[in-house]
Amino acid sequence: MGAKLKVAGWVALGAVAGALTTMQLPANGRTSLAPLPLEEMQQLAAVFGMVKSDYVEPVDEKKLINDAIAGMVAGLDPHSQFFDKKSFKEFRESSTGKFVGVGIEIGMEDGLVKIVSPIEGSPAFRAGLKSGDLITKIDDTMVKGLGIDQAVKRMRGEPNTKVSLTIFRKSESRSFPITIVREEIRQQSVRAKVVEPGYAWLRVSQFQDRTVDDFVRKLEEIYKQEPKLKGLVLDLRNDPGGLLEGAVAISAAFLPADTVVVSTNGQVADSKAVFKATPDNYTRRGGSDPLRKLPAALKSVPMVVLVNEGSASASEIVAGALQDHKRAIVMGAQTFGKGSVQTVRQLSPETALKITTARYYTPNGRSIQAKGIVPDVLLDETAEGNVFAALRMREADLEKHLQNAKGEDDKDPAREKAREEARAKLEAEAAKTKEPIKPLPEFGSAEDFPLTQAFNRLKGKTVLVSKTAVERKAEATTEQ
């Protein structure tokens, strides 16, 4: 794989974060029968008829209509979307955290699929696959040259079907084949560990259906091991968001009862709401409070929240709430800046519309749309500085993104120029050394520089703050 493709791969991985959304589920199924513009509808019908009768080959009517709906919604903003049968199924899988596969969290390294972590209890875990293993072949297909999405697609499939993987284990300098039977996997969106006596790390990688329950279980394990916890790092780096109720619940775990977590405002009445740290605002109808078993000490334990450019949506809600209430110190890099809420409205048993219905605001009334959460302490990715930060896309870089509610925007030509310069520099260095671009250390590892600085802050030690990072301010737009 050439240097250019390697760098492009890292950019793609960084851009994934902004593509996911904060959801209000379940959707209420409300429909609006607004008056239709007659002349424009007649034009639409005329075009439909011409395509049907005059196009070079027959076209499927249902596909034409679905494409028309998709085009209409795509013109609104980067996050509204029409779900056809296939994409709606994929969306539901992503929000529930369930899928059929082998059970591994993956990344890319030198064009190969790298196992970041086997999911506990999964077929891959039982087969003995380890963190750091590289997948070189999936069935009869070489992995080198595949994108990460293509590799995932080949490893997923129907329950009880087999997939053959060829594994290269660097620690043993050997390759070996392994056959795994696919089954339904429940993704682990929460990881945690006691790093040293008195100090713990808890990472939320996405806000899914089971995230709050997993979050509570991990905290109970931490307090069982360390009943007198002195400090906690809540790691939300590269967390793309997910379910709004999850963000409210996790914020509520650390805040006093009845504290405002987030408010939303949009065109319709049900998009105007204030969400507080009360069970009514984060439990499902008829369900019990998932936070009821957490120790009272959690409300006052010293905290740092780690964020970066990949922290978006629901993770920004949590960081903003804890920052505004001065409950935690936010450290890292300025976040993605996705300050909008999407609602999913089902159109048929197999199709749905995901549509932006509101902007959200932090407890102090801040809209972070196209701006993000600015950390209290800015950190670099490594002790040597930032490697991939300039390459990562943010909300303000997306076409048709919503402006900040105050008429501010963060579209910055200088940022685009900096991204291209950073890309060119990495490509040149990779071409010169002929070595693969070294990925950042795994979050939570001993080499994780921002995490080390977060613990230094909790212990009152010196923190190596960024010497180059500055706040990206939103700029007022003017009409042309």
UniProtKB/TrEMBL annotation:
<dbReference type="InterPro" id="IPR055210">
    <property type="entry name" value="CtpA/B_N"/>
</dbReference>
<dbReference type="GO" id="GO:0007165">
    <property type="term" value="P:signal transduction"/>
</dbReference>
<dbReference type="GO" id="GO:0004175">
    <property type="term" value="F:endopeptidase activity"/>
</dbReference>
<comment type="similarity">
    <text>Belongs to the peptidase S41A family.</text>
</comment>
<dbReference type="InterPro" id="IPR004447">
    <property type="entry name" value="Peptidase_S41A"/>
</dbReference>
<feature type="domain" description="PDZ">
    <location>
        <begin position="88"/>
        <end position="156"/>
    </location>
</feature>
<dbReference type="GO" id="GO:0008236">
    <property type="term" value="F:serine-type peptidase activity"/>
</dbReference>
<feature type="compositionally biased region" description="Basic and acidic residues">
    <location>
        <begin position="402"/>
        <end position="437"/>
    </location>
</feature>
<dbReference type="InterPro" id="IPR001478">
    <property type="entry name" value="PDZ"/>
</dbReference>
<keyword id="KW-0720">Serine protease</keyword>
<feature type="region of interest" description="Disordered">
    <location>
        <begin position="402"/>
        <end position="446"/>
    </location>
</feature>
<dbReference type="InterPro" id="IPR005151">
    <property type="entry name" value="Tail-specific_protease"/>
</dbReference>
<dbReference type="GO" id="GO:0006508">
    <property type="term" value="P:proteolysis"/>
</dbReference>
<dbReference type="Pfam" id="PF17820">
    <property type="entry name" value="PDZ_6"/>
</dbReference>
<dbReference type="GO" id="GO:0030288">
    <property type="term" value="C:outer membrane-bounded periplasmic space"/>
</dbReference>
<dbReference type="Pfam" id="PF03572">
    <property type="entry name" value="Peptidase_S41"/>
</dbReference>
<dbReference type="InterPro" id="IPR029045">
    <property type="entry name" value="ClpP/crotonase-like_dom_sf"/>
</dbReference>
<dbReference type="InterPro" id="IPR036034">
    <property type="entry name" value="PDZ_sf"/>
</dbReference>
<keyword id="KW-0645">Protease</keyword>
<protein>
    <submittedName>
        <fullName>S41A family C-terminal processing peptidase-3</fullName>
    </submittedName>
</protein>
<dbReference type="InterPro" id="IPR041489">
    <property type="entry name" value="PDZ_6"/>
</dbReference>
<dbReference type="Pfam" id="PF22694">
    <property type="entry name" value="CtpB_N-like"/>
</dbReference>
<keyword id="KW-0378">Hydrolase</keyword>
